[in-house]
Backbone:
């Protein structure tokens, strides 16, 4: 049975007390004169024995106390060393650390805590927050301390502290400290500066708002799948966000566009940006939409950042214009567009009929081709056209390139706002020669592609085949209905009023466009040219189906409006960009300058627009290289900073130079280039990197001076760092030659030194699996050095922001000396036991 130090002292005291009592009894016995003096010799021996026994016991107690005091001194020295080591570690960490009593008095602080409040550490120890902080701040800290004391657990709070460079945000972790009997006696705290992280979080939130508000498609993608899409993507394509993220984006691409899309993705993977790449996507409802992509690759992450506009309507209009241009070139009629005195566009039929090419008509006035006798009539017709009237069946003779004349029948209309005249002409030379008057008119009436009708008394008395083809009615159908029955209700009143004016010979507005009811119940928009025979009370009209034209105009208007809206959105994004964005032309003249550029460089937009950029923000020593770089790019298409992030010095309005990172993307518009520059002030980043290097050096200094071996292994189980003590334990100087598996260097045993310790239970393996371990005692036997060590091994996993284990930190504390001291102490204790008459188990030695 093991006897404590206190019990040993008590037992020695009791024995010595008994010896003293026995000695006293002997002494008192000698005072009795009537005693039996024959026993004096026995009493003398007893007294002598008691004296010797007392001396022996006092000697034993002396050596026990001396051994305990020596052990106590060793413990105190070790405690002092640990305290100094603890102070060194916390002073060299970047986080402010403190320990204070329950009543608020500071017991321990590190250098960072003192520098946080600009107060020497010695002035903080023994004082409370109210002694050196404003009352309202001290009250807040005191209340949070009391909360920890009440809750008896760790609490985290977010605190803002005003410092010389502005307010800083800290995450403060406070926790209770307990004494040996489990009572709370102090409050500990560690604070972490998260100011930069808060700024990044605010920037990410703002960017995310723009991301979700955009009417264009915005996506973040890997090389084959969407990783994040904005609401506009689902709205335009019809798929839910889950559907878009669950499949490779090529599955949404029209099969014919997959190969070209793959090539574009491969180009992006090489780091080249994409501007206005077009392909087709299949919507959820089965429809096809054209998308125009602008994509920026991030080589460091392999991610693609892309914006796409829906250009389906634009494509449809372009296709319609292509079709219209084909009909223009295929028509057998002479189709011309004129402005001023020249035909600015003619179709092949015009060249075939009259012999003139477009180059000829660029230099010839069309009035010069009119037959002299017809010139007066042609001038009158042109004058009416310029007033907005439409001319039907105007005939006059035109000179051919070979000098002959041909009769042409014209139908013209004018766009008053643009001053452009659109005309259709047919060669009626042979008809004029072969037939006269009514016969020619009737033939043209029946052959016309436009709808002709004659109206009298509000009844349509004659129509041509094109009328039936366009509206569906035959002549018998029209005998039962009036002209007004064909009109849309919204146009009955205005057409009736105009009809009455025409029959009275009064002038009427030239705009005759209205919807007519078809036989199938639908409505078609028509454009009419009308002539009136006032005497006969008859109206002659030519109708043209312009339904498709109205649809095209509406699409064009919608597309124009969308372009305006897109420009506004781009301007909003440009103005709201968190970093300076600058647009210059090939002469380095500033075209755009956003608000962030104003705040960073100090130049207002009005001061810099239209002026050379290098005169304002490029330091004098770099201006010539900027000009040469621009000339080199315009000549070769290559540039050192094009589509790359480049660090350089910039200068602000005050003349202060500071580091920036810049990325320049060229945009080619026709034969000209624009350059978009994205600039970021990296002054703080540079400072943070310098501080990081300094902190890394401090950390290495701490690790090298700590008494425990420390090794760090990455997720691939490769040792990436080891301190001096770890090198000594392993007997290896090169960190990369140390294996994370201790069995590669040692034979492992449990503390009994017989049972083999399994390698999968080692703290390194458990830490890489995400488990935390403390003070696992293991015996290391080095078969090469024939050396044995007893060690305590602890392991901690290091995780990233997604809670994935990226590395493990393992500490190895050599306790061989302590174990040896423990064995020596046990041996000493056994000797003491024998000296005072006790053997193991508490039995008395006789």
Residues:
């Amino acid at each position: 049975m093991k006897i404590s130090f206190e019990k040993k002292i008590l037992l020695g005291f009791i024995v010595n007390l008994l010896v003293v009592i026995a000695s006293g009894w002997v002494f008192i016995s000698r005072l009795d004169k009537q005693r039996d003096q024959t026993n004096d010799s026995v009493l003398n021996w007893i007294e002598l024995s008691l004296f010797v026994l007392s001396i022996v016991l006092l000697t034993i107690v002396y050596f026990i106390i001396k051994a305990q005091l020596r052990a106590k001194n060793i413990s105190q020295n070790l405690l002092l060393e640990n305290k100094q080591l603890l102070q060194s570690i916390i002073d060299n960490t970047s986080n402010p650390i403190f320990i204070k009593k329950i009543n608020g008095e500071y017991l321990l602080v590190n250098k960072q805590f003192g520098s946080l409040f600009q107060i020497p550490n010695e002035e903080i120890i023994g004082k409370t927050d109210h002694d050196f902080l404003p009352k309202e701040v001290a009250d807040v800290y005191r209340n949070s301390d009391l909360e920890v004391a009440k809750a008896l657990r760790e609490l985290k709070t977010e605190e803002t502290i005003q410092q010389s460079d502005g307010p800083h945000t800290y995450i403060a972790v406070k926790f209770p400290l307990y004494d040996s009997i489990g009572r709370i006696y102090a409050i500990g705290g560690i604070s972490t500066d998260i100011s930069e992280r808060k700024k990044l979080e605010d920037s990410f939130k703002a960017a995310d708002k723009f991301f979700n508000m955009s009417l264009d498609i915005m996506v973040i993608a890997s090389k084959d799948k969407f990783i994040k899409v904005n609401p506009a993507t689902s709205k335009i394509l019809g798929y839910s966000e889950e559907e878009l993220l669950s499949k490779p984006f090529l599955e949404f691409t029209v099969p014919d566009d997959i190969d070209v899309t793959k090539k574009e993705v491969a180009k992006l993977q090489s780091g080249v940006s994409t501007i206005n790449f077009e392909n087709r996507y299949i919507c959820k409802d089965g429809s096809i939409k054209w998308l125009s992509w602008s994509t920026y690759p991030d080589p460091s992450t392999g991610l693609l950042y892309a914006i796409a506009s829906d250009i389906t309507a634009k494509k449809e209009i372009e296709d319609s214009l292509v079709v219209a241009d084909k009909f223009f070139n295929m028509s057998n009629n002479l189709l011309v567009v004129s402005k001023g005195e020249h035909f600015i566009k003619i179709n092949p039929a015009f060249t075939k009929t009259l012999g003139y090419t477009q180059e000829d008509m660029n230099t010839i006035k069309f009035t010069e081709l009119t037959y002299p006798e017809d010139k007066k009539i042609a001038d009158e017709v042109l004058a009416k056209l310029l007033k907005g009237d439409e001319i039907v069946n105007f005939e006059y003779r035109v000179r051919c390139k070979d000098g002959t004349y041909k009769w042409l029948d014209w139908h013209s209309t004018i766009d008053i706002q643009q001053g452009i005249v659109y005309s259709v002409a047919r060669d009626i030379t042979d008809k004029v020669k072969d037939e006269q008057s009514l016969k020619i008119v009737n033939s043209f009436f029946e052959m016309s592609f436009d709808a002709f009708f004659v109206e009298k008394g509000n009844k349509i008395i004659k129509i041509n085949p094109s009328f039936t083809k366009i509206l569906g009615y035959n002549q018998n159908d029209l005998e039962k209905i009036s002209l007004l029955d064909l009109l849309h209700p919204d146009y009955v009143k205005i057409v009736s009023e105009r009809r009455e004016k025409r029959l009275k010979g009064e002038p009427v507005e030239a705009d005759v466009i209205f919807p007519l009811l078809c036989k199938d119940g639908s409505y078609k928009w028509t454009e009419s040219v009308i002539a009136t025979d006032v005497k006969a009370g008859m109206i002659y009209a030519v109708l043209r189906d312009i339904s498709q034209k109205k649809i095209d105009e509406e699409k064009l208007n919608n597309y124009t409006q969308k372009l305006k809206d897109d420009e506004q959105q781009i301007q909003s994004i440009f103005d709201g960009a968190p970093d300076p964005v600058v647009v210059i032309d090939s002469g380095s003249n500033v075209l755009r300058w956003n608000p962030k550029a104003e705040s960073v460089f100090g130049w207002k937009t009005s001061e810099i627009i239209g002026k050379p950029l290098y005169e304002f923000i490029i330091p004098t020593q770099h201006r010539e290289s900027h000009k040469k770089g621009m000339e080199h790019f315009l000549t070769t298409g290559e540039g050192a900073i094009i589509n790359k992030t480049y660090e350089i010095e910039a200068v602000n309005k005050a003349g202060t130079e500071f580091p920036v990172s810049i990325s320049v993307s060229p945009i080619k518009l026709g034969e000209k280039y624009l350059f978009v520059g994205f600039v970021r002030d990296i002054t703080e980043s540079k400072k943070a990197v310098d501080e990081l290097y300094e902190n890394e050096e401090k950390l290495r200094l701490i690790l090298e001076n700590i008494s425990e071996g420390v090794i760090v292994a990455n997720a691939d189980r490769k040792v990436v760092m080891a301190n001096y003590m770890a090198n000594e334990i392993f007997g290896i100087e090169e960190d990369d030659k140390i294996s994370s598996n201790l069995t590669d260097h040692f034979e492992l045993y449990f503390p009994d030194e017989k049972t083999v310790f399994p390698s999968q239970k080692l703290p390194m393996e458990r830490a890489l699996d995400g488990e935390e371990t403390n003070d696992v005692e293991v015996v290391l036997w080095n078969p090469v050095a024939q050396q044995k060590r007893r060690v305590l091994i602890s392991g901690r996993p290091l995780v990233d922001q997604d809670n994935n284990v990226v590395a493990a930190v393992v500490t190895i504390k050599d306790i061989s000396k302590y174990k040896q001291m423990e064995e020596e102490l046990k041996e000493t204790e056994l000797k003491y036991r024998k000296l005072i008459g006790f053997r193991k188990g508490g039995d008395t030695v006789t």
Observations:
- The radius of gyration is 50 Å.
- The longest strand covers residues 166-178.
